[in-house]
Specification:
Layout: H1 5-13, E1 23-24, E2 30-33, E3 36-40, H2 53-66, H3 74-78, H4 81-94, E4 98-102, H5 105-116, E5 122-126, H6 131-140, E6 143-147, H7 152-160, E7 167-172, H8 184-193, E8 197-201, H9 216-219, E9 227-232, E10 242-246, H10 248-257, H11 259-262, H12 269-284, H13 286-303, E11 309-310, E12 317-323, H14 325-337, E13 340-341, E14 344-345, E15 355-360, H15 367-382
Parallel strand pairs: 3-13, 5-6, 5-7, 7-8, 8-9
Antiparallel strand pairs: 1-2, 2-3, 4-10, 9-10, 11-12, 12-15, 14-15
Helix pairs in contact: 2-12, 4-12, 5-6, 5-10, 7-8, 13-15
Bound molecules: 4'-deoxy-4'-aminopyridoxal-5'-phosphate.
4'-deoxy-4'-aminopyridoxal-5'-phosphate binds next to helix 5.
Pathway: Cofactor biosynthesis; biotin biosynthesis
Keywords: Acyltransferase, Biotin biosynthesis, Pyridoxal phosphate, Transferase
Protein name: 8-amino-7-oxononanoate synthase
Length: 387
C-alpha cells in the first residue's frame, strides 16, 4: 500500500509541511495553544465578534427553538424561517435584491460558478483569485482563462476574444494573501461592455469595508445587474457559512442549479439565528471598523524601516514579505518562541519566492498588543533574523 511517507518527507524537506495546532477555548487575541497562552495575529475574526455574547445568546436561543440539525437539504425540508429571514437580511446588508445562503464560502464559489457557466462558456479569473474560485471555474467545465492581477485592460482583451457562450469574470474583492483591493468599478464597467457577469468574492471585505460594513461593492459604489457578491460569514461576521447576493432572477436560477446548495444538508437553523444577530452588530458597531483602521495605521508605522517589505494594504490583512519558505517559517517560529502567533504562508498558497507572514488584525486587539508584535519584529531584525 502506498502510504505517502516519501511525499510527506519531501514536503518537510522543502519547509512546506503544514502543522495544525490545537486551540483550547474561544477565539480572541489571546489563545490557549497546546497549554500555552499566545498573542494571535492569525484569525479572520476581523471585528472580534466570534465570541460576542449577543451572538452566543442568539445561537443558544436558536438551538432551543429549532434543535440542532436542519434534517435535510434546503430544497427538501431543511429551509427554516430562520434561514428565510437571514437571506432577506443578507440581501439588505449588501444592498442587493436577493440572497441565497450556503454552508461555506468554498461551497458557495463552487456552486455559483457551476450554476452560471458550463461547457461552451468562458470563465475569466484574476491570477491571484482564491483557490475556491479557481476550483469552481475548473469544475464548471467552462473554458478557463486567467488575467494578470487587477489588470482591467488585459481583462477587456480576454473578453473581446471570448467565443460565443456565457462569460463570467471572477475576482476577490480584498485579496486574501495580499490585502489589496480589486478595482471593482472598472471591472464592473468592462463586464457590462462585454455582457459578462462579475462574481465578486468579498470574504475579506464584508463587515470591514463600506458604510456600516456593507462590503467592498458598497464602498466602491458599484451597482449593476451584472454583478454578484459572494460573502463569507466565518470571518468578520464571526459565525460560519456564506451567501451569494444579486438580481432576484440570478439567485432563483442559482437556487435551482448550484449543486453545493442542492445536494447538501442545510446548515443548522440556530446558526442562521446567530448570524442574524451578527449582522445587526456588524451594522451597528461602526467603532469596530474605525478601531481596525487605527490599528492597521499603528502597525504599518511600527514596521516601517524593517528589512521585510510590508505590502500596501489598508485592510485587516497586513502581509510582511520574507521571500524564502524556510526563512518565513523561521521568523514565524522565532515569534512563537516569544509567545506571538503569526502564520507563515508559503507556496502554493502564494507565488514562489514570496513566502510571507500574514498578519491579520482584529478590532479587539489592543494598541499595546500591536506594539508587542512590532517590538518583537524589530528585535528579531536587530538580531539578524532576516540575514
Ligand atoms: N474566498 C476567499 C477569498 C477566502 O479567503 C476564503 C476563506 N479562506 C473563502 C472564499 C472560503 O470561505 P469559507 O471559509 O467560508 O469556506
Amino acid at each position: 500500500m502506498h502510504d505517502f511517507s516519501d511525499e510527506l518527507a519531501h514536503l518537510a524537506s522543502q519547509s512546506l509541511l503544514r502543522t495544525r495546532r490545537v486551540v483550547d477555548g474561544p477565539q480572541g487575541p489571546l489563545l490557549m495553544v497546546e497549554g500555552r497562552q499566545m498573542l494571535s495575529f492569525c484569525s479572520n475574526d476581523y471585528l472580534g465578534l466570534a465570541r460576542h455574547p449577543e451572538i452566543v445568546a442568539a445561537g443558544i436561543a436558536g438551538l432551543q427553538q429549532y434543535g440542532m440539525g436542519a434534517g435535510a437539504s434546503a430544497l427538501i425540508s431543511g429551509h427554516s424561517t430562520a434561514h428565510e429571514k437571514l437571506e432577506e437580511e443578507l440581501a439588505r446588508f449588501v444592498g442587493l435584491p436577493a440572497a441565497l445562503s450556503f454552508s461555506s464560502g468554498y461551497m458557495a464559489n463552487l456552486g455559483v460558478i457551476g450554476a452560471l457557466v458550463g461547457t461552451g462558456d468562458t470563465v475569466v479569473v484574476d491570477r491571484l483569485a482564491h483557490a475556491s474560485l479557481i476550483d469552481g471555474a475548473r469544475l464548471s467545465g467552462a473554458s478557463l482563462k486567467v488575467f494578470p492581477h487587477n489588470d482591467v485592460a488585459r481583462l477587456a482583451q480576454v473578453l473581446a476574444r471570448c467565443p460565443v457562450g456565457r462569460r463570467l469574470v471572477v475576482t476577490d474583492a480584498v485579496f486574501s494573501m495580499d490585502g489589496d483591493l480589486a478595482p471593482l468599478a472598472e471591472l464592473a464597467a468592462v463586464c457590462a461592455q462585454h455582457d459578462a457577469w462579475l462574481l465578486v468574492d468579498d470574504a475579506h471585505g464584508l463587515g470591514v469595508l463600506g458604510p456600516h460594513g456593507g462590503g467592498s461593492l458598497a464602498q466602491a459604489e458599484v451597482r449593476s445587474p451584472h454583478v454578484l457578491c459572494m460573502g463569507t460569514l466565518g470571518k468578520a461576521a464571526g459565525v460560519a457559512g456564506a451567501f451569494v447576493a444579486g438580481e432576484a432572477s440570478l439567485i432563483a436560477w442559482i437556487t435551482q442549479r448550484a449543486r453545493t446548495y442542492m445536494f447538501t444538508t442545510a446548515h443548522p437553523p440556530a446558526l442562521a439565528v446567530a448570524t442574524s444577530a451578527s449582522l445587526a452588530l456588524m451594522a451597528r458597531d461602526d467603532w469596530r471598523r474605525e478601531r481596525l483602521r487605527e490599528l492597521a495605521a499603528q502597525l504599518r508605522q511600527g514596521l516601517a524601516g524593517l528589512p521585510w517589505a510590508l505590502l500596501p494594504s489598508s485592510t485587516a490583512i497586513q502581509p510582511l514579505i520574507v521571500g524564502d519558505n524556510a526563512a518565513a517559517r523561521a521568523l514565524a517560529a522565532a515569534l512563537r518562541d516569544r509567545g506571538i502567533w503569526v502564520p507563515a504562508i508559503c507556496p502554493p498558497t502564494v507565488p514562489k519566492g514570496s513566502a510571507r507572514l500574514r498578519i491579520s488584525l482584529s478590532a479587539v486587539h489592543t494598541p499595546e498588543q500591536v506594539d508587542q508584535l512590532t517590538a518583537a519584529l524589530q528585535s528579531l531584525a536587530e538580531e539578524g533574523a532576516h540575514a
